[in-house]
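User: what does the whole thing look like in 3D?
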Amino acid sequence: MNPPVLDIRGLSINYQTAIGPLQALRDVNLVVPEGKIIGIVGESGCGKSTLISAIIRLLAPNAQIGQGSVCFKGEDLLSLSPEQMRSLRGDKISMVFQDPMTSLNPVLTIGRQMSDVQYRSKSSRADKKARSVMMLERVGIPDPDTQLQRYPHHLSGGMRQRVAIAMALMAEPALLIADEPTTALDATLEVQIIHRLKELQREFGCSILFISHHLGVIAELCDEVVVMYAGEVVESGSLREVFINPKHPYTQKLLECDPARIAQPTRELPVIEGSLPDLLNLPDGCIFRERCSKATARCGTEQPLLSGDHHQAACHLLEPSP
Amino acid sequence: MSTVLTVRDLRVRYTVSRGFVDVVHGVSLDINRGETTAIVGESGSGKTTLAMALCGLVPVYGGEVCFDGEQLKRDRRNRLSPDRKRVALMFQDPLGSLNPRMTIRKALAEPFRIHRTGSQDPDGEALRLLAMVGLGDDFADRYPHQLSGGQARRVGVARALALRPDILIADEPTAGLDVSIQGEVLNLLSRLQQEMGLGILMITHNLNVVRHVADQMAIMYLGRFIEQGNSQQIFSQPRHPYTAALLSANPSPDPNAQSGQIELLGDVPSLLQRPSGCEFHTRCPRAQARCRSSFPDLTTSTGKQQFNCFFPMGE
Amino acid sequence: MTKPHGLIFHTFSGLKKDPLGMAGFVLVSIILLLTIFAPWLAPYDPLDINVHNRLSSPSAAHWLGTDQLGRDILSRVLFGGQVALKVSLIAISVSMAIGLVLGMLAGLGPRWLDRILVILFDTVRSFPTIMFALAIVALTGPSLNTVIGVIIITSIPVYARVVRTQTRALRERDFILAERAMGASTGRILRDHVLPNIAAPLFILASMDVPAVVGMEAGLSFLGLGVSPPTPSWGSILNDGYSYLRNSPWPLIAGGIPLIAVTLGFTFFGESLRDIFDPKLRRKDQ
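Assistant: Here's the predicted 3D structure for the full assembly of 923 residues, as C-alpha cells:
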C-alpha cells in the first residue's frame, strides 16, 4: 500500500487580528489516498480556503500554524523551504480555482500560457506546443490549434475553466486541488466538466481534492467526502456512507436543506436555525451546539471527538451511553 | 388571479461593429399577482437583459408591455418607463448593488427620498424594513462590506419592497448563497409575496429552486422562450429537448440516483450567427433535416404548456 | 451623525500605523502653521532693505542670512510660503471644482459631449506649461494672478480626466443601476452616489498636487513670469540665490529647502491617505 498522497494530522491555524486570534482551523485531519477523489463539503466560514492555503503554503501573513502536519507523500510540507515548496507547486501539486480568470493571464495567449506552464520541461517549443494541443483535446476543447492563439477573454467561462484544468494537469501532478471550479458555471457546463474530470482522473491516476458547496456535484464526482463546519471536520467517510447515512446533525441538516433532495415541492424550504459561531470567541463544547436541535447538556461543556472507523463523525449522540 | 404585467413579443437589439445581436428575440409572458414565474436558461440566453428591459434600464427594440392593462410608453432612448414605485428590481450581486459609502439606513431610505412619498420619517421606515426581513436595528448603521452575503441579500429584498410594489424582478436571488441560507431568503420572499400579493419574476439557472418556488416557468435559449407553462407540468413532462437536457443536467445529491444526463453537443452558438430553422438544432440530439430548414410553430398542449419543436419529447 | 467623527478617527488610526505618512502629516502641519502665522513669526519685514548687510551668512540676528539687498531671508521664506499657500489653495480648489463638473459631464453625459471634452482636455494638456505661460504673460504681463490662471487652466484637464475615468467606471456598477431602477434622477445619482465615491481619490490627488503647483509657481517666478519683485516667493528667492551663488549659497539653500519639505511632506501624507481610504484595503470590521 502506497502512502497517502496527502495526510493532514491535527492541523490548527489561527489568524492574528487586532482583536485577538481567530481560530480558523482546529485539529483538522484529512487523508487523500492515491488515485482517489476526496470532496470537502462546507459552507462559507468553514475553513476550506484556509485549509487549501495551508496545503500549498500560501497563507496570509497574519496566519499562525499552531500545530499539526501536512504530509505530501510522506514529507511534511510545513517544514519545507519556500524554494522546495515552489518546485512542488504546479508540478506535483496543482490547483484549479473558482474563477478561471484568476489563473489565466488576460494579456497572454492561451498557447503562450500553456507553454509557460511547462517551463520545467527541457523539450523543444514544438514539443511543448504539441503537448498543449493534446491536453486541450483531452479536456474537450474543439479545434485546439486555433484556440492556442486566442486570448482568455475570447473564450466562454466553461472553456476557460477547461483550459485551467488542462494547465493544471499538464505536469501530471500527484494531487490536483480544485476549489469550487464549477460554482460559477451553469448546470449543463458543470456536468460536462465534472465528467471530464472523472475521465482525466482515471487516465492520469492523480488524486483530486475537490471543494464545493454544491452537494450534487460532490455526489457525482467524489469517492470520499469530508464535511467541515466552522473550522472543524465534523464528519468524514465514503460518499455513500455520508450522504445516505449522515451521522452528524450538521450533515443531516445540510442534506435536508438541499432543494434537490426534497422530493415534494414546497414553499417552506428547510433552513438551519441560528448563525455561524464567532471564531474569535469560540463557545464551549460542541461547535454546532447552538444550532443543533438534538443538543444535550453535555454538548455545551464537552467537545466531541471523531468516532467510528471509516465513517467518522464528531457527535456525543453517537457514542454508546455509558 | 389578476395579471399585472403583460409582455408581448419583446425585443432587445444591440448594434455591434459586425452587425447586430438580438439578445431578446420576441418574448411573451404574463406575470400575475401572488404568483412566481421563473425564467431559466444558461448564461448568455438573455434572461438578465430581459429583466433590465422590463425595468427600463436598456432600450427596447420592439414589442409591447402592459402594466395593469395600460401600455407602457418609451422614453427618448427607447427605454420602457414603468412606474418605478410598482416595479422593483433585485440584482444578482447583493453587495455590488449597494453604495459602498452609504449606511444601510440611508440605502433603505432611498426609495422614499426618491419618490417623496410623504413619509415623514425615512429613517423610521428603514428600521421597519429591516425588521420585515428579519434583521435587527443594529444593521442600520453598518456599511455594505460589513454584511455577509445572506444579510446583504435581505437588505436588497427590503429595499426592493420598500414601496410595496406590485412586481418584484429578482435576478439570481440565490446565487452565491450557501444552501442553508438560500432557504431563508426564499422563505422570506414567499412570505412577503403572500402578505403583499406580490408578483415575482425570478431569473435563475438554479433548477432545484425553481421546482419548489415557481408556479410558472419559461426556458430561454438565444433570446427566445422555447418552452413555458406550469412548472410542475414541465418538470414532470418536459416537451422541448433543451428543457429535457437542462433538467437532466442537474446532478443529484442522491448517490443512488441514476445519472441519465442528456449531453448536448457543442457550445451555445453566437448571437451574431443564429442557426437557421430551429435555433437549437445544432446541439439537439433529436435534430433532423426539417429542424435545419424551418422554424417550428408554437404548440400549446394541455394545461397551456407551450413549446416550439417538431419532434418534442414524449412522442 | 457619526460620519465626520468617524472619518477623522479613521484617518488618524491609519496614520498611526504608517510612520512615513505620519511624518508627512507632521511636516505638512508645521509648514502650514509657519506659513499661516508668518506675519507674527517673521523677525523682519521681508521687504526691508539693508544693503550694508548684504549676502551675509546665517547668524543669530539672521537665522538664514541675508540676500543681495540685505533682506532677511528667513522672513522672506516665511512670507514666500504665504504666496505658495495662496497659489495652491486658489489654483487647486478652482481647477478641482471645474474639473469635477467637466469630468462628471464627460463621464455620465452623452457620447458626443464626452468626445468634445476629451479633445479639449488633450489639447490643453499638450501645451508645455512654460510655453503656455510665456504666451499668456506676453499678453497680460507677469503677475501672481497670471501664474494662478495658467496653473488652473493646465490643471483642469488633469482633474477632469480622473473624474471622468472614475465616473465612467462607476456608471456600470450595480448600485448605480439599482438607483436608476428605483427611478432616481441623474442629478441625485451624481450628488449622492457618484460624488462620494470619487471624492476621496480626488482629494488625495489634490494633496499630492500641492507640491506640483508650488513647484510650478516657483518655476514660473524663477523665470520672472510670476510674482514681481520685491514680493518674496520661493521661486524668486531661488532665482536671486542662483544669480548670487558665488557670493553666498544661503539664498539658494533657503529657497530650496521649503520646496523640498513641501514636496516630501505632501507626497508622503497623500500616499498614506490613499492607502487609508482604499476600501479594498479596509478590513471587514472597520
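In plain terms: The mean pLDDT of chain B is 87. The longest strand of chain B covers residues 3-16.
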